[in-house]
Hints:
This protein has helices at 2-9, 21-35, 51-63, 98-107, 122-129, 157-169, 184-194, 209-220, 255-262, 286-297, 304-315, 334-348, 378-390, 394-408, 413-431, 452-460, 494-500, 510-516; strands at residues 13-17, 42-45, 68-71, 85-90, 112-115, 149-154, 173-177, 200-203, 226-229, 242-247, 273-278, 361-363, 435-439, 442-446, 464-466, 471-475. By secondary structure, it is of the alpha/beta class. The strands form 3 sheets. The protein has a 6-stranded parallel sheet, sandwiched between helices. A hairpin with a 2-residue loop joins β13 and β14 (442-446). α6 crosses α7 (184-194) and α14 (394-408) packs antiparallel against α15 (413-431). The longest helix is centred in the last third of the chain and has 19 residues, at 413-431. The protein starts with a helix and ends with a helix.
Amino acid sequence: MRAAFKCCQDVKQVMVLCPTTILAEQHYETFFSRFAPFDLKVAVLSRFVTPAQQRKTLEGFADGSVNVLIGTHRLLSADVNPYDLGLVIIDEEQRFGVQHKEQLKNMREQVDVLTLSATPIPRTMQMAMSGVRDMSLIMTPPPGRLAVKVTVGEWDPDVVSDAIRAELARKGQVYYVSNRVTTIDDAVARVLEAAPEARVGVAHGQMSAREVEDVMLRFSEHEIDVLVATTIIESGIDNPHTNTLIIEDSQRLGLAQLYQLKGRVGRGRIQAYAYFMFPGEAPLTPEATDRLTAINEYQDLGSGMKIAMRDLEIRGAGSLVGAEQHGNLSSVGFDLFTQMLGEAVAEARGEATEIEVPEVTINLSADFFLAEEYIPEVDRRVLCYRRLAAATELADVDGLQRETEEGFGALPLAGRNLFDRARVRIRAQRLGCTSVSLVNGRIVYLGVDVPRQVALKLKGRGALNYPKTHKLAYPFRKGGRADHAGRPWRARGAWRRRRVVRGRRVTPGFARLRRLGCWP
């Protein structure tokens, strides 16, 4: 609202885009009460407004007499023509598709866009993390706000009955979500069976505008105790008297939806409760299990960022150059895509790009990862991976390893391997090497040009150099020791005996020499 007010003071217009009619009406009331004393005109476009009022509002927005226009997808229509648009605010950004957002961006090239979301979709999250978009986090909750207590489990009529009656006993209200319009009457019957004394109302998207408005008004005036609804209540409904949420088919909903619905309760200073239930007779899919585990794990205030990071892990980042808002890239690897994107962002900002270093492929038979048991927080693990991948100096890797071990204790073997792998990558890049792999007991380096004098020394240590193909193969023995000259250790006398078999004659000591590693 402060951004919108600043824009209006500079004689520019503001558009506020909301996903639902109810939320648009709530925003209109809030903006009107705050902006009216400053002689700023606020209008709303939604299905609650008559066609005559809509025409009048559009005329005022076109001639500049309307300063702030609030509405749903109706604002994306061709007949909405602002006089001098300066700012577009998109509330509940995760509810809009890529085409909607691009359509808004194409309205005016010099328009600022502010998007708001408690749980950004994976595509938006990746854009923010890669620098395409700026991102700020509001981490401070309102004074007195308490975290919602979450319960995840199979649908149980006794639990539902106890939850509703406990809320009614403290003069509160309940949201009961059943996300299928065709069976919502059955959900009403289940609620009445669990709590016959409750006054029950119904709201869903197939009702007329007047019916929805009437039900929501009665609910806000406390004439309804339990509102049985679809996810129409998901976006931004503000009712501080409602402090219990029950979802009977939570396995059908996305992670962001679950978190948004949880945000409909606990909007005052009273302890709120959320019950995420699923039918016991049907097995959960792995994705549904991951979603419900995440919503149960992240119960603290301000967990939206963690939820969004988990959603990014579960669903993939989508395509920043296409319409997919989730999923994984198939034609280009994710690491390469992130690197290309970072270079493009730096170039667009006019920042100096670093000299391109060769991409190094490392193929060694070991595990390289940070275990979930070692760093439980998803965002901390992702940040550590990103910092390690971006490191270009050995000192950076050493510093990050010290920082990680100070925060989480000694690294497990796979974690140490991960940091050592980064050191191998940096050293290989300095040499211009493109690949490091372990093949048939030799470490093979590709893309290296070995000077003749160095090649002779390496040959004395058992290495094979191929100048034409820029390849070097160096003998490797797991757990082997080295002599004072750096050569792999061999049994006493092995070098002398090797001369006997230099012509590959089969001798009684051949098998033993191969066991000792003296034979190529």
